[in-house]
Write a structure and sequence with these properties.
Layout: E1 19-25, E2 28-29, E3 33-35, H1 47-51, E4 54-56, E5 59-63, E6 69-72, H2 74-87, H3 95-108, E7 121-130, E8 143-152, E9 163-168, H4 185-200, E10 205-209, E11 217-220, E12 224-229, E13 232-235, H5 245-256, E14 260-263, E15 276-281, E16 285-294, E17 300-302, H6 311-324, E18 335-338
Parallel strand pairs: 9-10, 9-16, 13-14
Antiparallel strand pairs: 1-2, 1-3, 1-8, 4-7, 5-6, 5-7, 6-18, 7-8, 10-11, 12-13, 12-15, 15-16, 16-17
Bound molecules: pyridoxal-5'-phosphate (PLP) and 2-OXO-4-methylpentanoic acid.
Pyridoxal-5'-phosphate is lined by residues 58, 219, 222-224, 242, 244-247, 281-282.
Length: 339
């Protein structure tokens, strides 16, 4: 095993040994190739470079106390990548290719899977892009699907400590009937200005609001949003939100804990009624939120009065990470082992 300061890893890029690639050419996907290069050679007229034909996934591999490596709900990521591909007219990687690629890339980089108990995990970044040339605005005829890995710590430096976020109405991440529900690069490009400004103003992330009525909560930066009200787990529903696999799992865990689950539009006004709020995602895991500031009105919503995550968020976090790291029974069959 490589010697890294596992407990202090940021959510950043760290070189590993290998990545894997497959190219779609002449109407078929090629054999999976193994590479130790961090670079890809790509045609200057590739549609990914000009017209944003690019989608990605994010998933994690976890090491249990038993030393076994666990992947969490990978089939969901495979399907979501197909949905993203479909959304921007790219060739969909077959589930079998996705499966072969993710298992292979973990096996090839086993020494980078962080030890159990460090809070770190091996992040997998599957990537799909139009690699074939076009000058007219058209989908490419050739595609590259690849997966690289990098060991990571928590996305927000605060980890499971509560963060402050900012409502910004002067930037939209996406639009109704746009690409918000797909994991495509353009959505992230559109979020950069608001995100960097929020960061400079002292916030961990932006809370995006729907672009039409400027009234409903969309997403918490690169994560879904949820709120707890009494015995209810409430999370926004809209066509612009990426269907988070973490959020889906939290909804299932909340229901399993006897909570009511509501998936519906959530207005900014309703923020005043929640006892706990948080951001959730593969990278963010659960990031409890202590303060939401509306940049336009100056209005503030406060949570975590004692400075700590609330009891429901804490329980959900423990159960989710307990399953992911193999400390809790995998009663929903979410885990696949990488041998
Ligand atoms: N929303 C956005 C915009 C994201 O980028 C992510 C990250 O993948 C999520 C939500 C969380 O999704 P998941 O839980 O599947 O990682
Ligand atoms: C993830 O949670 O996996 C993400 O992709 C979020 C982000 C780093 C873009």
């Amino acid at each position: 095993m490589i010697n890294l300061d596992w407990g202090k890893l940021p959510f950043g890029y760290q070189k590993t040994d290998y990545n894997v690639r497959s190219y779609f050419r002449n109407g078929e996907w090629g054999k999976l190739e193994i590479s130790s290069s961090e670079y890809i050679s790509i045609h200057m007229a590739a549609t990914a470079l000009h017209y944003g034909q690019e989608a990605f996934e994010g998933m994690k591999a976890y090491k249990g106390l038993d030393g076994r490596i666990r992947l969490f709900r990978w089939m969901e990521n495979a399907r979501r990548m197909q949905s993203s591909a479909h959304g921007i007219m790219m060739q969909e990687p077959p589930v079998e290719l996705f499966e072969e690629a993710i298992f292979k890339v973990i096996q090839l980089n086993k020494r980078f899977v962080p030890p159990h108990g460090t809070g770190a995990a091996l992040y997998l970044r599957p990537l799909l892009f139009g690699s074939g040339p076009k000058v007219g605005v058209k989908p490419a005829d050739e595609y590259c699907f690849m997966v690289f890995v990098t060991p990571v710590g928590p996305y927000f430096k605060e980890g499971f400590s509560p963060v402050s976020i900012q409502i910004a109405r002067d930037y939209d991440r996406t639009a109704p009937k746009g690409t918000g529900q797909y994991k495509v690069g353009g959505n992230y490009a559109a979020s950069l200005r608001a995100g960097e400004r929020a960061f400079k103003e002292g916030f961990a992330s932006v809370l995006f609001i729907d672009s039409k009525e400027k009234k409903y909560i969309d997403e918490a930066g690169p994560a879904n949003f949820f709120g707890i009200k009494g015995n209810k787990y409430i999370t926004p529903l809209s066509e612009t939100i990426l269907p988070s696999i973490t959020n889906k799992s939290l909804m299932e865990l909340a229901a399993d804990m006897g909570m009511e689950v509501e998936r519906r539009p959530v207005s900014v006004e309703e923020l005043a009624e929640f006892e706990e709020v948080g951001a959730c995602g593969t990278a963010a895991v659960i990031s409890p939120i202590k303060r939401i500031v509306d940049r336009d009105t100056g209005r503030e919503f406060s949570y975590c009065k004692d400075g700590k995550a609330g009891p429901v968020s804490t329980k959900l976090y423990k159960r989710l990470t307990g399953i992911q790291y193999g400390d809790e029974e995998d009663k929903f069959n979410w885990i696949s082992f990488v041998e």
